[in-house]
Amino acid sequence: MFFSFVKIDAPPGQAHTIIDVLESMRGQTVSSPGCLGCLLTVEVGASDTICYQEQWRDRETLERHLRSTLYTRVLAAMELSNTHPLVEFFEVNKTGGLELV
Q: What is the CA radius of gyration of the chain?
């Protein structure tokens, strides 16, 4: 399983524009083969910091998505960032649940 994480520092007055761009692709992304989830959040206490996360079944489907025209919307949103956007990818080999608590 793979996770992608993008953190964007929106310039003043641009947060809604970035959110609209990312929200416009969520439905298509979630319905893509291999996508296990998609989450768009705004950080509490950090004004205008937007986090966009995706979860993918395997590397192949993630890489296909990264090369798609749909993903150009994420790239466009990152271009609006006030600072260098944080972009991270994680490969998860083992997961746990409530039993870890």
A: 14
**Residue pLDDT, tens place only, 41-65:** 998 766 689 999 999 999 999 999 9
CB distance 89 to 27 below 8 Å? no
Query: How many whole angstroms separate alpha carbon 51 and alpha carbon 34?
Result: 21
Who contacts 9 (Cβ-Cβ below 8 Å, separation ≥6)? 48, 49, 81, 82, 83, 85
CA torsion, points 27, 30, 32, 35, in degrees to nearest 10? Answer: 160
DSSP the chain: -EEEEEEEEPPTT-HHHHHHHHHHHHHHHHTSTTEEEEEEEE-TTSTTEEEEEEEESSHHHHHHHHTSSTTHHHHHHHHT-SSPPEEEEEE-S----GGG-
